């Protein structure tokens, strides 16, 4: 961690963003502000913060999906600030990869305590990979959520994109049906292997030279899938 920790604050409410930013700057932290998920992703890729503070109710994207995508290439701690107080919202955010969850409205002292706790982690636990993944003729820009093949844009659905980066960020590793279903669709879809096969088939049509003889997304029969770059 740098001498002055850098915190990325992704919050669309300007009043809350101003309050949190002023509070953290008063404690000596360097604050980067973003009002949308798209801006937050760009800042995360460019500035590589030590901590991400994230509102789930962003105007341009579901905060849970933002967490899942960010976790593909960064282990930086995530503190969720949300008005959603239901237990299921907290569980979903933590399962997606958040490290802590603070419900609005919150006290300044509690916010600062949670920030300090997350920043005490060993820097080796906050690994950040380059947000670019390349294989074969394909290139994935994780920050801008853009995929190209031989220089031409590939148009993927949100689920196809998240499935691709989850596989591609674990080269050579077998990801089970259960792992993939949980990460992409959540616990309600854990038994729907056929659903997963359909999406893998569609994805192969877009990234493989010969979809019937895949080189990148390899089926491990009865277990899951393995990605070979």
From TrEMBL:
One of its GO terms (biological process) is positive regulation of DNA-templated transcription. It is found in: Cytoplasm. Coiled coil: none annotated. InterPro entries: CheY-like_superfamily (IPR011006), OmpR/PhoB-type_DNA-bd (IPR001867), Sig_transdc_resp-reg_receiver (IPR001789), WalR-like (IPR039420), WH-like_DNA-bd_sf (IPR036388). GO terms for cellular component: cytosol; protein-DNA complex. One of its GO terms (molecular function) is identical protein binding. Residues 6-119 form the Response regulatory domain. Residues 130-229 form the OmpR/PhoB-type domain. Keywords: Cytoplasm, DNA-binding, Phosphoprotein, Transcription, Transcription regulation, Two-component regulatory system. Residues 130-229 bind DNA. The keyword Cytoplasm applies. The modification 4-aspartylphosphate is found at residue 55. This is Response regulator. It comes from Azotobacter vinelandii (strain DJ / ATCC BAA-1303).
């Amino acid at each position: 961690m740098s001498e002055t920790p850098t915190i990325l604050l992704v919050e669309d409410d300007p009043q809350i963003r101003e309050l949190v930013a002023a509070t953290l700057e008063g404690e000596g932290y360097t604050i980067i502000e973003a009002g949308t998920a798209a801006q937050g992703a760009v800042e995360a890729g460019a500035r590589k913060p030590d901590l991400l503070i994230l509102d789930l109710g962003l105007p341009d994207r579901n905060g849970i999906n933002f967490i899942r995508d960010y976790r593909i290439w960064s282990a930086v701690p995530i503190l969720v600030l949300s008005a959603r107080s239901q237990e299921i919202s907290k569980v979903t955010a933590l399962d997606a990869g958040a490290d802590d969850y603070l419900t609005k409205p919150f006290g300044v002292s509690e916010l600062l305590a949670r920030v300090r706790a997350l920043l005490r982690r060993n820097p080796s636990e906050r690994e950040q990979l380059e947000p670019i993944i390349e294989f074969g003729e394909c290139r994935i820009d994780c920050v801008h959520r853009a995929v190209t093949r031989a220089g031409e844009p590939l148009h993927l659905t949100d689920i196809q994109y998240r499935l691709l980066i989850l596989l591609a960020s674990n080269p050579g590793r077998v990801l089970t049906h259960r792992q993939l279903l949980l990460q992409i669709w959540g616990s309600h879809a854990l038994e729907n292997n056929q659903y997963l096969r359909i999406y893998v088939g569609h994805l192969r049509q877009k990234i493989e030279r010969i979809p019937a003889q895949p080189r990148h997304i390899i089926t491990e029969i009865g277990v899951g899938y393995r990605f070979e770059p």
